[in-house]
Amino acid sequence: MTTTEPAPADHDAPTTADEPALLAWLARMRDEQPVWRDRFGMYHVFRHADVHTVLRDPATFSSDTGRLSPVARTTNRGMLTQIDPPEHRRMRMVVSSAFTPKRVAALEPRIRAITRSLLDDVAGDAFDLVDALAFPLPVTVIAEMLGLPASDHGMFREWADRLFSMQVDDPTDPELGPRVEAAMADIRGYLVERVRERRAAVADGTAGDDLITALVAAEIVTDGSPVLLDDEEAANFSLLLLLAGHITTTVLLGNALRTFHDHPLPDGRNVWTVLGEDPASIPAAIEEVLRLRSPFAQTGRVTTRDVEIAGTTIPADRFVLPSLLSANHDERAFADPEAFVLDRGIGGGAQTAFGHGVHFCLGAPLARLEGRVALEELTARYAALDPVDTDAAALRPYPRGVLGVRNLPVRGTPRHEG
Ligand code: HEM
User: Fold this and answer.
1) What is the C-alpha to C-alpha distance for residues 379 and 334, in angstroms, rounded to an integer?
2) Residue ranges lining ligand 1, Cβ < 6 Å
3) Nearest CA owner, ligand 1 atom 27
4) 233 near 78, Cβ under 8 Å?
5) How far apart are CA 24 and CA 36, in angstroms?
């Protein structure tokens, strides 16, 4: 039996670089075409309930994109985000103990010390928030967890920038795989070297307790017998932690400042002022920022069988792109979704920026902690802190997929002069 697929789309989706156009388009699509087949044959899913349906069902919506793309099959090896159950659970367990709320909470003093030292280094009241804090804070934290030296941070930024700045006009372009490969080759080579060093250290009993050591020492039980990750798998897993561990939190902090600036509370009060008076409301504010400006606008899955979503039948072996950003703006799930409402509820609730289901973000407790500490320290220092430029050229928004900016010039009003 063959399924008749919807006709190819007559337009492209706006990119994350044009946020107002993207949000307006998503709102229209949620109403008019909750499942949309783009001209590359990928199915976008826009409504909150449907996004959850996709993310809850890994048997039908596989994360193993290597099924459709031979290049992905090698680049995905060891990448937790691309592995389906039951292997996924075994792999996730190798590092999950480092990310429990309790283990993460123990990092708070170190995160606060890094934040204070970075803010002490800021000269003057006008500075770039991304350069000063939003990039160096999360990259320092995740690099320390992985056991990578501070002197290499500049290199990580360059690599991440190269990867997330790639212009992808046609996601089905066979050249795309080799381009991604090329953008990742340096960092992969660097991490393979670190993996080999750790393996040698484990062998001669001098290993520390960092995450790369945990990865090379872990025995994954497959088909009843324990197997070690090979160098490539351990390097890919480390790469995911390194990239996922900083770029998203960098984006979150920039998004927070921009959202406080352009979304006053429904009663007209300025969010920054409220957070300064009541730091206990910072976690709730972070959830609203994640909802309104979700750093990962969408994620990806591949269908393993024909399946119907919102009245559209998606055949087997198709890319499906659940839009986390759209789900988070869905009026079917959130009352007055464009408003910044502080008391929607702490702890995630229905907010979907960290995903949903078995791949729910492993680093969510860490990202929330970093965001909270950063905003506590910033609001304690500055009575006001506002973006000075909203011009896209100055902010350099990411071109696709990631909703956020690579620069954010701000001006602060210190609480205590001198
Ligand atoms: C605001 C910050 C962050 C956001 C918005 C975010 C978002 C996400 C999302 C949406 C997923 C699910 C992807 C999918 O289902 O396909 C995910 C998975 C993941 N995230 Fe995060 N993330 C953030 C911070 C972090 C941090 C700090 C780490 C630390 C290492 C991290 C590590 C991971 C890992 C390892 C996964 C894969 C989990 C799995 O496949 O089981 N993330 N993240």
Assistant:
1) 28
2) 63, 80-81, 92, 142, 240-241, 244-245, 248-249, 252, 295-296, 299, 324, 353-355, 359, 361-363, 366-367
3) 245
4) yes
5) 15
> Measured in angstroms, how far is the CA atom of residue 240 from the centroid of ligand 1?
9
* Beta-bridge partner residues of 307: 314
Q: Which candidate, 234, 244, 236, 149, places its Cα nearest to that of 198?
A: 234
With tokens 């997929």, the residue in question is 401
The helix, strand and coil proportions of the chain, stated in percent and rounded to the nearest 5, come to 50, 10, 35
Per DSSP, 268 falls in state S
Substitution candidate for ligand 1 out of 51, 96, 156, 248 with most atoms within 8 A of CB? 248
- Alpha-carbon gap, residue 69 to 318, rounded angstroms: 11
Tens-level pLDDT at each residue, the chain (418 residues) = 455 787 777 788 998 989 999 999 999 999 999 999 999 899 999 999 999 999 999 999 999 988 887 666 667 788 899 999 999 998 898 888 888 888 899 999 999 999 999 999 998 999 999 999 999 999 999 999 999 998 898 888 888 887 777 666 666 677 777 777 777 888 999 999 999 999 999 999 999 889 999 999 888 877 778 888 899 989 999 999 998 888 889 999 999 999 999 999 989 999 999 999 999 999 999 999 999 999 999 999 999 999 999 999 999 999 999 999 999 999 999 989 999 999 886 554 578 999 999 999 999 999 999 999 999 999 999 999 999 977 777 888 887 789 999 999 999 999 975 4
Domains with residue ranges and CATH for the chain: 19-406 (1.10.630.10)
What is the DSSP code (8-state) at residue 280? G
Model pTM score: 0.94
